[in-house]
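Fold Annotation — chain and its backbone
Next Lines — sequence and tokenised fold

***
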Amino acid sequence: QVQLVESGGGLVQPGGSLRLSCTASGSIFSIYHMGWYRQDPGKLRELVATITNEGSTNYVASVKGRFTISRDNVKNTVYLQMNNLKPEDTAVYYCHANVAAVKGSGYDYWGQGTQVTVSS
């Protein structure tokens, strides 16, 4: 079994910054792609950013130039640096990882979510 534990959410004023972290632990042979998603009440969960195990990244258009995703493969951790935050970034942010316990295909795992609120 694999657990994803997130940290770093909170309340910040518009224009401020936050850094989210997510660490995977448990039966891990390899972690393929990792990413961050977010969800507002009453809305569908949307992809924010993803990163492959080789470091290729992808972002939703609304966060390009403001958010940066990175990962530390030694620590099994993915980060999301969020700068110039806007009220519309307010949501619960979820970490995602595709993890293989043995050599072969991976399975999808999710963190418990961390609240990010952007408000003055």
User: Anything to note?
Assistant: The CA atoms of residues 6 and 22 lie 4 Å apart.
